Amino acid sequence: MREAAALTTQAEDFFSAHPGVSLLALGAGVHAESMDLSPLGLPATYLPAERNTDLVSQYLALNQFAFRGIGVPRWVLSDLYLMPGAIGLLRCPARMLKPDVREHLGLADEDPAIGAAYYAAPSVTPGLFIGVSLLSFLPGTGAGAWVKLLTLRMLRAKRLRGVAQWDNPSVRVHTRLGPLRLVGRVPGGHEYGERTFVYESDLSDSTRVARAMARGLSLEPTRRIPVTDLSALSAVLGRAEAGAVLSLVPPGVQDGHVLLHEG
Ligand SMILES: CC(C)(COP(=O)(O)OP(=O)(O)OC[C@H]1O[C@@H](n2cnc3c(N)ncnc32)[C@H](O)[C@@H]1OP(=O)(O)O)[C@@H](O)C(=O)NCCC(=O)NCCS
Fold first, then answer.
1. 217 to each of 14, 157, 181, 214, 249, how far by Cα in Å?
2. Which of 44, 48, 53, 114 is the most exposed place for a label (fewest CB within 10 A)?
3. Number of structural domains, the chain?
């Protein structure tokens, strides 16, 4: 109980520090009753995608803006995001967004905007979700980590498998939820295959998540590998695929080096 309370306090502090930010879920109406709309005791609003097409269009525009060439196609957004699940969103007034994003969307200061978003897809393994898209346009606020954690809570996820690139700032966001156990390369390949890895996060221990969110989780790295040393990192993934227990320890990447814990 106490550990859940610690996370709740941290989440309340985030929302108090950023007035105007609220938590939403956007997906097919049928899923509303399966979601936890009080994640960590905080209020969340479920918006059926069928009746919130402007918000769906804004998400589509932001995803394509953020991911450029590998942004989500509209049919994938409908068929594989909104029909099977729900996207978690932090909504805010447009004036809070990064200026280039606000300009891209053509919004006035007080227009409602998506400040951060996370989508994790349900999988056939009970409790396991697959991280698909993390976006944040509120830099320096911790919005990326909060939208990710609160979305996974709304989905009642117990474990998460995700895909990341060694050199993407998102690695630091992912380690806010705890150490990332390396799984290996992406099944079936990836556009950025040579610098991409699959990780797994265990979400079952709220104490550990609360400590990691506050950057208070200390695990000594046993090895530091430059993010540019793709052959060493590929060898690490080979060992993970062969069954070795290898984790990225928070904050994941520091001074251009991946922080690895072996064993
Ligand atoms: C990745 C992304 C979600 C991060 O957004 P955010 O959580 O709001 O970002 P923050 O400003 O809070 O920074 C998150 C962390 O990365 C670090 N960081 C930010 N920019 C960085 C950079 N250019 N290089 C290294 N680290 C960086 C921050 O210091 C912070 O670390 P900390 O949590 O240890 O303090 C956002 O930049 C984004 O939407 N990028 C485009 C889409 C994308 O690449 N998504 C990830 C796909 S897996």
1. 19, 21, 15, 8, 9
2. 53
3. 1
